[in-house]
Design a protein that fits this description.
- By secondary structure, the chain is an all-alpha fold.
- Helices cover about 50% and strands about 0% of the residues.
- The protein has 3 helices and no strands.
């Protein structure tokens, strides 16, 4: 699509897009952090990296050597 347009048309299109992006409302990161922390904490009990993998289900245990995440 851009190959069919002149440089002037491409710049005009980019300028229109930038005008839209400038008007986009921004929220501070701290406003969203509480939701993210709550979401992550809800998933913690089921996370295999934190909970650990039982030795009988660990494919890297036994003949192949051990794999320990610390």
């Amino acid at each position: 699509m851009a190959r069919d347009m002149s440089d002037k048309e491409i710049l005009k299109m980019e300028l229109e897009q930038l005008k839209k992006e400038v008007n986009t409302p921004r929220t501070p990161v701290t406003a969203n952090c509480a939701e993210i922390v709550t979401f992550v904490e809800e998933l913690l009990p089921n996370d295999p990296l934190i909970k650990g993998v039982p030795d009988d289900k660990n494919p890297y245990k036994g003949d192949k050597g051990g794999c320990i995440v610390t």
